[in-house]
Specification:
Distance between the termini: 36 Å
Helix content: 40-55%
Radius of gyration: 20 Å
Structural class: alpha/beta
Shape: globular
Length: about 350
């Protein structure tokens, strides 16, 4: 079954040695978006699900189940992500995921949301290193699946990561995915690549970079600085340009990343129409569908020239008929950006 036990294989396996991952994005990165992106554009080597937050009464909500069931992830390699600070809930959630055939899960230690952090979960767990160590002891002792960890550098200071990495190095992690910001940065400021470099030289496990890779040129700049890093996770950049995985592979392999190769208005429109149709089939009411599409356009509008007035009109639209007319206009009246945005 694709997306579970078998390992990911690159679509450029003969020449391509870097692995590209799709970051978990709450609200947008679910199975409808993942499958549309993979069907219309070069796909990721791994997709990570929006986090599953197990509760006392049930470990997987109906929405969680719909997102991870095998029939919704047939052509991709999916890694379910779990957000919790309780080892018992983590282990019970893993057992439910194993029933679907999953052999790899990811622990979320990176979510900076205040509602998550105040409960000591996500990035908030990083501020409790002793508790985190006990948690990791238990899950690695009692889990028979591969476990990767997605983390930030700490709560307030990048120097917190010195202690955190000492803890992480004790465990046989599949991968350590580092977003080199602290919780209080949220997504502001620039990723701290100096601390990432130090972590890279001291980590005992494979390290994955995540943070602000929005274009082939941004990837090339990162690769020039870290030529030995062979795995990168991207999220917001892919939402803006769903062809980004293919464009980055082109740059890696020395091909000129021509956007016309992967990203055309015809393909982007077909991708958009597929998303809209699929969301209409599973969501209730125009407002719910519009909310979902507006989230996507918050990022995707930037691929168009002179996109500002269209993005504003999309944001203000209250009916799908109005929304469709604005989308038709931006595709008809504007072109894709020629610069490496």
């Amino acid at each position: 079954m694709a997306g579970r036990e078998e390992r990911p294989v690159s679509m450029f396996s003969e020449e391509y040695h870097m692995q590209l991952y799709f970051a978990p994005l709450e609200g947008i990165g679910g199975y409808i978006y993942r499958n549309a992106q993979a069907d219309f554009f070069p796909k990721a080597d791994k997709y990570f699900s929006p986090f599953i937050s197990p509760g006392e009464k049930r470990r997987l909500t109906p929405r969680d189940r719909r997102d991870v069931v095998p029939e919704h992830n047939e052509r991709i390699y999916l890694v379910p992500q779990i957000l919790t600070n309780r080892a018992d809930l983590f282990l019970e959630t893993v057992r439910e995921l194993q029933a679907f055939g999953y052999g790899e899960v990811n622990l979320n230690l990176g979510c900076p949301s205040r509602t998550v952090v105040t409960k000591g979960r996500g990035a908030g767990f990083l501020g409790r290193p002793e508790e985190l160590e006990h948690f990791l002891d238990e899950i690695f002792e009692n889990c028979d699946v591969r476990i990767s960890v997605k983390t930030r550098l700490g709560m307030e200071s990048p120097e917190e990561f010195v202690r955190l990495l000492e803890i992480f190095n004790r465990y046989p992690m599949e991968e350590l995915i580092i977003h080199p910001r602290v919780q209080t940065d949220y997504y502001k400021n620039v990723p701290n690549r100096e601390i990432f470099s130090r972590a890279l030289s001291r980590a005992n496990m494979p390290v994955v970079y995540n943070g602000d890779i929005f274009s082939p040129s941004a990837f090339a700049e990162f690769h020039d600085e870290f030529p030995d890093v062979d795995t990168v996770m991207m999220g917001r950049g892919v939402l803006a340009d769903p062809a980004l995985f293919g464009e980055v592979r082109d740059r890696w392999n020395g091909r000129t990343p021509e956007k016309t190769q992967w990203l055309t208005k015809e393909r982007l429109l077909a991708f958009h129409d597929r998303l809209l149709s699929d969301y209409e089939s599973v969501l209730f009411g125009e407002k719910t569908v519009l909310f979902k599409m507006k989230e996507i356009w918050y990022y995707m509008a930037h691929v168009f020239t002179n996109h500002e007035k269209y993005a504003k009109a999309i944001h203000k639209s209250q009916r799908l008929s109005v929304y469709r007319e604005v989308v038709k206009r931006i595709f008809t009246e504007q072109e894709l950006q020629e610069n490496d945005f």
